[in-house]
From TrEMBL, chain A:
It catalyses: L-threonyl-[protein] + ATP = O-phospho-L-threonyl-[protein] + ADP + H(+); L-seryl-[protein] + ATP = O-phospho-L-seryl-[protein] + ADP + H(+). Belongs to the anti-sigma-factor family. GO terms for molecular function: ATP binding; protein serine/threonine kinase activity; sigma factor antagonist activity. This is Anti-sigma F factor. It comes from Sporotomaculum syntrophicum. PANTHER family: ANTI-SIGMA-F FACTOR RSBW, ANTI-SIGMA-F FACTOR RSBW-RELATED.
UniProtKB/TrEMBL annotation, chain B:
It comes from the Bacteria. Belongs to the anti-sigma-factor antagonist family. This is Anti-sigma factor antagonist. The gene is spoIIAA. It comes from Sporotomaculum syntrophicum. Residues 1-111 form the STAS domain. PANTHER family: ANTI-SIGMA FACTOR ANTAGONIST TM_1081-RELATED, ANTI-SIGMA FACTOR ANTAGONIST TM_1081-RELATED-RELATED. Pfam families: STAS (PF01740). GO terms for molecular function: anti-sigma factor antagonist activity.
């Protein structure tokens, strides 16, 4: 097993930092460039959610990123200690968004591009997104947003 | 700045470079809205030729602008998306709302 853990400020510029860090570690496995691009989208969505929804864009908070390589799998956890999600079932609905300028596709993209996905959250305590993908296999079948 | 905005006839052409995520979207949204108002045009072209990455934050800016211009009878066009960007666009369903062209030149030929 190979693993890495990072904590970074909940600032928009760190979304790119997080997805590049994950892609760098994931590239130790037999992922194609297309696979890595999909993994980067999934990470970007999870970290963006932590910053925007978990911390309400407060740049003074910290997002934790844990990455593991276990055999052929890349396992990724994105953890915030923000306000949490009141209704996870509703949040997971495609096209659900509390903001008209957002598409509500973040969780759909995570589920589409990763093989395994789960989210746990406690209001007032934070949110943990876990996702993994095996090298050499496509992500889960795309889900429609409509 | 990672984008340029220019007017061509009745079209606003927004050429974006690099990664389109929440680090860019606030300023991009604001500047496109200002340019739409300033030039008084109602058709919008997103030139994605030099976009390497887009997530749902970037798509949200496109969708928001679509809602704005289409409410006034305008159109939004997408052009030049690389395969990894096109994949995200396709999954989002945005191409069902707006025309997508493989290159800006093809699009400009079409719209004149």
């Amino acid at each position: 097993m190979n693993k890495a853990a990072l904590e970074f400020s909940s600032r928009p510029e760190n979304v790119a930092f997080a997805r590049v860090a994950v892609a760098a570690l994931a590239s130790q496995l037999d992922f194609t460039l297309s696979d890595l691009e999909e993994i980067k989208v999934a990470v970007s969505e999870a970290v963006t959610n932590a910053i925007i929804h978990g911390y309400d864009n407060n740049p003074e908070c910290m997002v934790r990123l844990e990455i593991k390589i276990v055999e052929e799998f890349i396992e990724i956890e994105i953890i915030d200690t923000g306000k949490g999600i009141k209704d996870i079932t509703k949040a997971l609905e495609p096209a659900y968004s509390t903001d008209p300028e957002r598409m509500g596709l973040g969780f759909s993209f995570m589920q589409s591009f990763m093989e395994n996905f789960s989210v746990s959250s406690s209001p007032g305590k934070g949110t943990r997104v876990k996702m993994s993908r095996r090298a050499g296999t496509p992500g889960r079948k795309a889900v429609s947003e409509q | 700045m990672n984008y340029t905005i220019k007017r061509k006839n009745n079209y606003l052409i927004v050429s974006v470079i690099g990664d389109v995520d929440i680090n860019l979207t606030d300023s991009l949204r604001k500047d496109v809205d200002l340019a739409l108002a300033h030039y008084g045009v109602n058709n919008l072209v997103f030139d994605l030729t030099d976009v390497d990455f887009v997530d749902s934050s970037g798509l949200g800016v496109i969708l928001g602008r679509y809602k704005r211009v289409s409410a006034n009878g305008g159109k939004v066009y997408l052009a030049g998306a690389k395969p990894q960007v096109k994949k995200v666009l396709d999954l989002s369903g945005l191409p069902r709302l707006m025309e997508m062209y493989p290159s800006v030149n093809l699009l400009l030929d079409k719209i004149g």
